[in-house]
């Protein structure tokens, strides 16, 4: 696995990753996510519930929310990575890689049998961390009911 910038380098630049849900800026998160292809039309109440019931890795710059990664997990066998973003003005310096390193190293997420995610455009990022296309996709099933955009 490639080596990326360490915590100290980002902390020195005013960046922080925190799991403290009290720090989450709901309005900033909702404003961003409802512009994405994966969460367009999501009702605010649904997002509140999703954040409450997930491990939320908030990314902050000088105290302001600039990104998020959400992990839905039982902390024993499975984790689903979703709602990953870094605001455009903070991209290109390795923050998404730092978030991935932080998530995958979290003590409560060790020894899981399976990680899953869905992405239309970030396979390059996730493949650096061992994610691959699903083996035997014919074995996977889903119920998909997208939100209706307002």
TrEMBL record:
Domain N-acetyltransferase: 17-150
Pfam families for this protein: Acetyltransf_7 (PF13508)
Domain of life: Bacteria
InterPro entries on file: Acetyltransferase_Butenolide (IPR053144), Acyl_CoA_acyltransferase (IPR016181), GNAT_dom (IPR000182)
Keyword Transferase: yes
Keywords on record: Transferase
Any GO MF annotation of the entry: acyltransferase activity, transferring groups other than amino-acyl groups
Protein name per Swiss-Prot or TrEMBL: N-acetyltransferase
